[in-house]
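ugh ok fine here u go
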Amino acid sequence: MKTCSLVMAVAVAGVLGHVQAIGSQIAPVGTPEPGTVAAAISASGGLFQADPGMSPKVTVSWPRRDGTTAVHHAQRAYTAPEQRGPLGPNLTTYIALGGTRGDAGAADPRAAIIKVGFYKGEANRPFFENIADGGSITVELSNVKFNRPARPEPQTAIQHGKYEDPNSVLGCTSSQTVSTAMGGLDFYNTVDPKDDLAGKITLKNGRLGSLAGKVTAKVEPDGTVTMTATLPYAGLKHPDDPWLRTNPGDFAEPFHFHVEMEVLPVDAGERRQGTSPSKATKPA
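structure:
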């Protein structure tokens, strides 16, 4: 019976993309055991998940130095980062379910997480061609359909990215071993100033609340969800980067970043969190 419960837990997690172990096993097929994830799913009207039959659309735009605006868009099926495809000059993209919040155990177990990610095509070329000084990148993820009426939660949005070379980011203050151990090659920007992803975000690798007012989400008349994030280019700089300049070409860019957000069933009630957030404190 224990083995059967474990198999079911893995299956549910695979569909949701981020269901975490919460101290109780999922009951086997039949009447769900009270207090389990299976019971919550049964009571809420069934599994809440994205409709794989509809391909979401991603649109990315940014201001160029010549006063024009670069706009690139593509429609993609849900896929893994390894199956990403071209979007613009030196820009590739993918759309997926599940995300960093779920991996950290800081997600509502009833929610789905939608994610749109970007990779550089060539590491030594700029992420966003000719982006203007002080510019922002606008990312829109649209046409996201769920099997039940949905309620997006923009306050849960996160921007998470990664850097390849710690020395180019942190200079002589870091080493490959130390940077990897402390998460120095990752960066996080959040909407909620108290959302430290269950302690995963610190003052060394994140900016809590830096995206406040910069991420919006809505349910369209056809029931699909649209998320729009306005991401300052300066936010691509690692929080612990010792250099002061923030214009394009003045700091080491990440090779990858993504934006994610939770979406709940419309009748879910108040959002729950896997682990309560706390204010990030400066490491000793």
